[in-house]
Protein backbone atom coordinates (compact mmCIF):
# COMPACT_ATOMS: atom_id res chain seq x y z
CA UNK A 1 0.00 0.00 0.00
CA UNK A 2 1.38 3.42 -0.94
CA UNK A 3 -0.14 6.68 0.31
CA UNK A 4 0.89 10.21 -0.71
CA UNK A 5 -0.71 13.22 0.89
CA UNK A 6 -0.06 16.90 1.15
CA UNK A 7 0.58 17.45 4.81
CA UNK A 8 -1.21 20.21 6.70
CA UNK A 9 0.10 23.56 7.80
CA UNK A 10 0.37 23.69 11.57
CA UNK A 11 0.03 27.21 13.01
CA UNK A 12 1.34 27.67 16.56
CA UNK A 13 0.37 31.11 17.94
CA UNK A 14 2.42 32.89 20.59
CA UNK A 15 -0.72 33.10 22.75
CA UNK A 16 -4.48 33.36 22.37
CA UNK A 17 -4.26 37.16 22.01
CA UNK A 18 -1.07 37.49 19.93
CA UNK A 19 -0.71 37.79 16.15
CA UNK A 20 2.82 36.27 16.19
CA UNK A 21 3.01 32.60 15.23
CA UNK A 22 5.23 29.82 13.96
CA UNK A 23 4.08 27.91 10.88
CA UNK A 24 5.16 24.31 10.36
CA UNK A 25 4.64 23.09 6.80
CA UNK A 26 4.93 19.30 6.82
CA UNK A 27 5.29 19.27 3.02
CA UNK A 28 4.46 15.96 1.40
CA UNK A 29 4.06 12.75 3.40
CA UNK A 30 4.68 9.50 1.54
CA UNK A 31 3.99 6.19 3.30
CA UNK A 32 4.53 2.79 1.75
CA UNK A 33 4.38 -0.58 3.42
CA UNK A 34 4.93 -4.18 2.46
CA UNK A 35 4.79 -7.57 4.13
CA UNK A 36 7.18 -10.48 3.83
CA UNK A 37 7.40 -13.98 5.23
CA UNK A 38 10.52 -15.08 7.08
CA UNK A 39 11.09 -18.84 7.21
CA UNK A 40 11.50 -20.23 10.72
CA UNK A 41 13.86 -23.00 11.71
CA UNK A 42 13.05 -25.95 13.88
CA UNK A 43 9.66 -27.35 14.78
CA UNK A 44 7.59 -24.23 13.93
CA UNK A 45 5.46 -24.85 10.81
CA UNK A 46 4.44 -21.23 10.18
CA UNK A 47 6.69 -18.47 8.84
CA UNK A 48 7.07 -15.18 10.73
CA UNK A 49 5.43 -12.10 9.19
CA UNK A 50 7.54 -8.96 8.82
CA UNK A 51 6.08 -5.53 7.97
CA UNK A 52 8.28 -2.84 6.44
CA UNK A 53 7.01 0.73 6.40
CA UNK A 54 8.84 3.48 4.51
CA UNK A 55 7.84 6.98 5.71
CA UNK A 56 9.15 10.09 3.93
CA UNK A 57 8.51 13.72 4.81
CA UNK A 58 9.68 15.93 1.95
CA UNK A 59 9.86 19.72 1.82
CA UNK A 60 9.25 20.12 5.56
CA UNK A 61 9.85 23.74 6.62
CA UNK A 62 9.41 26.11 9.54
CA UNK A 63 8.71 29.85 9.40
CA UNK A 64 7.52 32.74 11.56
CA UNK A 65 4.62 34.95 10.56
CA UNK A 66 2.24 37.63 11.80
CA UNK A 67 -1.43 36.68 11.51
CA UNK A 68 -3.68 39.55 10.38
CA UNK A 69 -7.07 39.37 8.72
CA UNK A 70 -6.79 42.51 6.60
CA UNK A 71 -3.30 41.99 5.14
CA UNK A 72 -0.91 39.19 4.30
CA UNK A 73 2.42 39.20 6.09
CA UNK A 74 5.27 37.39 4.33
CA UNK A 75 6.62 34.42 6.26
CA UNK A 76 10.16 34.63 7.60
CA UNK A 77 11.76 31.29 6.82
CA UNK A 78 13.60 29.77 9.78
CA UNK A 79 14.21 26.24 8.56
CA UNK A 80 14.88 25.78 4.87
CA UNK A 81 12.99 22.81 3.34
CA UNK A 82 14.35 19.47 4.54
CA UNK A 83 13.63 15.81 3.88
CA UNK A 84 13.22 13.15 6.57
CA UNK A 85 13.23 9.42 5.84
CA UNK A 86 12.20 6.67 8.26
CA UNK A 87 12.20 2.93 7.74
CA UNK A 88 10.12 1.07 10.33
CA UNK A 89 10.32 -2.70 10.41
CA UNK A 90 7.89 -4.61 12.65
CA UNK A 91 8.06 -8.27 13.53
CA UNK A 92 4.38 -9.24 13.73
CA UNK A 93 5.35 -12.58 15.26
CA UNK A 94 7.60 -11.08 17.95
CA UNK A 95 5.89 -13.03 20.74
CA UNK A 96 7.32 -16.33 19.46
CA UNK A 97 9.92 -15.42 16.78
CA UNK A 98 12.71 -13.53 18.59
CA UNK A 99 15.55 -13.66 16.03
CA UNK A 100 14.34 -10.32 14.61
CA UNK A 101 13.58 -7.33 16.91
CA UNK A 102 9.92 -6.51 17.59
CA UNK A 103 10.38 -3.02 16.14
CA UNK A 104 13.37 -1.58 14.30
CA UNK A 105 13.49 2.09 13.26
CA UNK A 106 16.12 3.61 11.00
CA UNK A 107 16.02 7.28 10.13
CA UNK A 108 17.94 9.80 8.08
CA UNK A 109 17.78 13.57 8.36
CA UNK A 110 20.10 14.99 5.72
CA UNK A 111 21.71 18.41 5.79
CA UNK A 112 19.65 21.11 7.45
CA UNK A 113 20.02 24.90 7.24
CA UNK A 114 18.33 26.93 9.97
CA UNK A 115 18.51 30.69 10.51
CA UNK A 116 17.02 31.85 13.81
CA UNK A 117 16.98 35.60 14.37
CA UNK A 118 16.69 37.40 17.68
CA UNK A 119 12.99 38.11 17.10
CA UNK A 120 12.37 34.49 16.00
CA UNK A 121 14.02 33.22 19.19
CA UNK A 122 11.91 35.64 21.26
CA UNK A 123 8.67 34.40 19.67
CA UNK A 124 9.76 30.78 20.23
CA UNK A 125 10.41 31.41 23.92
CA UNK A 126 7.09 33.26 24.26
CA UNK A 127 5.28 30.31 22.64
CA UNK A 128 6.82 28.05 25.27
CA UNK A 129 5.96 30.39 28.12
CA UNK A 130 2.67 31.99 27.03
CA UNK A 131 0.94 29.51 24.73
CA UNK A 132 1.74 26.27 26.49
CA UNK A 133 1.49 27.72 30.00
CA UNK A 134 -1.54 29.88 29.30
CA UNK A 135 -4.11 29.62 32.05
CA UNK A 136 -1.82 28.18 34.71
CA UNK A 137 0.63 30.22 36.80
CA UNK A 138 2.16 27.08 38.36
CA UNK A 139 2.61 25.50 34.94
CA UNK A 140 4.21 28.76 33.78
CA UNK A 141 6.81 28.60 36.60
CA UNK A 142 7.55 24.88 36.06
CA UNK A 143 7.89 25.41 32.32
CA UNK A 144 10.45 28.21 32.85
CA UNK A 145 12.54 25.87 35.01
CA UNK A 146 12.33 23.05 32.46
CA UNK A 147 13.36 25.29 29.56
CA UNK A 148 16.39 26.56 31.49
CA UNK A 149 17.50 23.00 32.39
CA UNK A 150 16.93 21.45 28.95
CA UNK A 151 19.96 19.82 27.31
CA UNK A 152 20.22 18.67 23.72
CA UNK A 153 21.83 15.33 23.05
CA UNK A 154 22.94 14.59 19.51
CA UNK A 155 23.93 11.15 18.33
CA UNK A 156 26.86 11.03 15.93
CA UNK A 157 26.31 8.36 13.33
CA UNK A 158 26.50 9.31 9.67
CA UNK A 159 28.19 12.64 8.93
CA UNK A 160 26.50 15.44 6.97
CA UNK A 161 26.45 19.16 7.78
CA UNK A 162 23.67 20.68 9.86
CA UNK A 163 23.89 24.43 10.48
CA UNK A 164 22.04 26.49 13.10
CA UNK A 165 22.62 30.24 12.80
CA UNK A 166 21.34 32.71 15.43
CA UNK A 167 21.21 36.32 14.28
CA UNK A 168 20.57 39.71 15.90
CA UNK A 169 19.70 43.14 14.56
CA UNK A 170 22.55 45.62 14.32
CA UNK A 171 21.12 48.85 13.06
CA UNK A 172 18.83 47.80 10.19
CA UNK A 173 20.79 44.67 9.28
CA UNK A 174 20.75 41.16 10.75
CA UNK A 175 24.12 39.67 11.59
CA UNK A 176 25.02 36.26 13.00
CA UNK A 177 26.02 36.11 16.65
CA UNK A 178 26.15 32.30 16.84
CA UNK A 179 26.69 29.75 14.09
CA UNK A 180 26.49 26.14 15.22
CA UNK A 181 27.64 23.37 12.89
CA UNK A 182 26.39 19.88 13.71
CA UNK A 183 26.83 16.51 12.09
CA UNK A 184 24.21 14.51 10.22
CA UNK A 185 21.48 13.26 12.56
CA UNK A 186 20.50 9.61 12.36
CA UNK A 187 18.66 6.99 14.33
CA UNK A 188 18.85 3.22 14.39
CA UNK A 189 16.64 1.77 17.12
CA UNK A 190 15.75 -1.83 17.91
CA UNK A 191 13.09 -2.90 20.41
CA UNK A 192 12.80 -6.46 21.61
CA UNK A 193 9.85 -7.93 23.46
CA UNK A 194 10.64 -8.57 27.13
CA UNK A 195 8.53 -11.24 28.75
Question: Can you put this structure into words, describing what you see?
Answer:
With 195 residues, the chain is mainly beta. Helices cover 14% and strands 52% of the residues. It contains 2 helices and 11 strands; from the N terminus they run E-E-E-E-E-E-E-E-H-H-E-E-E. The protein has helices at residues 118-131, 137-149; strands at 2-6, 9-13, 20-25, 28-38, 48-66, 76-91, 103-109, 112-117, 162-170, 173-182, 185-191. The strands form 2 sheets. Strands 1, 2, 3, 4, 5, 6, 7 and 11 form an 8-stranded antiparallel beta sheet that branches. A 3-stranded mixed beta sheet has the order 8-9-10. Strand 2 and strand 3 form a beta hairpin. The chain is elongated. Residues 146-159 have low confidence and may be disordered.
Q: Which structural class matches the secondary elements? A: mainly beta
Shape: elongated
- Count the helices. How many? 2
Q: Would you list the SSEs in sequence order as H and E?
A: EEEEEEEEHHEEE
The proportion of strand residues reads over 45%
Question: Would you count the extended β strands for me?
Answer: 11
Task: Output mean pLDDT.
Answer: 76
Give the radius of gyration: 22 Å
Low-confidence stretches: 146-159
Q: What's the story with the biggest beta sheet?
A: 8 strands, antiparallel
Helix content: 10-25%
- Measured between the Cα atoms of the first and last residue, the distance is 32 Å
Structure summarized in a few sentences:
The chain has helices at about 120-130, 135-150, and strands at about 1-5, 10-15, 20-25, 30-40, 50-65, 75-90, 105-110, 110-115, 160-170, 175-180, 185-190. It is mainly β and about 200 residues long.
Amino acid sequence: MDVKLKAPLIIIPQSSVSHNAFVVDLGLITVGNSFSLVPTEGHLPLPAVLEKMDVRLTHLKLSRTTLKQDSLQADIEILQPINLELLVQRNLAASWFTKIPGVQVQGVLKSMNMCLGQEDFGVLMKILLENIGEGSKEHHRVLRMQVSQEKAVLAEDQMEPVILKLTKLQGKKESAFLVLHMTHLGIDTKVRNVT
